[in-house]
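User: Reviewer 2 asked us to show a designed sequence for the structure in our supplementary figure. I'm pasting the structure tokens here. Could you produce the per-position amino acids so we can include them in the response letter?
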């Protein structure tokens, strides 16, 4: 699993967060995606590393900007993760 953290500029509300999440889901295969206008970021959990170029190309037409991109291996944490991994 991989965790990709994107810096996103231009989000102002919950609708902006939903727009970013749906755009990302259409562009790449994800397990989970969340966005926060307060933190100015989106977090993607995926089986495979996310292609930065695909993300940037998908988000550019929406009017939001990708300010940073970081992809790293991700391991589920929590009590049930060891059982249901």
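Assistant: Here is a per-position design you can include in the supplement:
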């Amino acid at each position: 699993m991989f965790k990709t953290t994107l810096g996103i500029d231009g989000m102002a509300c919950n609708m902006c967060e939903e727009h970013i999440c749906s755009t990302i889901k259409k562009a790449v295969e994800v397990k989970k995606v969340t966005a926060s206008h307060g933190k100015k970021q989106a977090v993607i959990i995926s089986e495979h590393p996310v292609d930065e170029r695909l993300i940037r190309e998908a988000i550019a037409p929406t009017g939001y900007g990708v300010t940073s991109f970081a992809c790293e291996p991700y391991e589920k944490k929590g009590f049930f993760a060891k059982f249901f991994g």
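For the response letter, you might also mention the following. The chain is about 30% helix and 35% strand. The first helix runs from residue 14 to 27.
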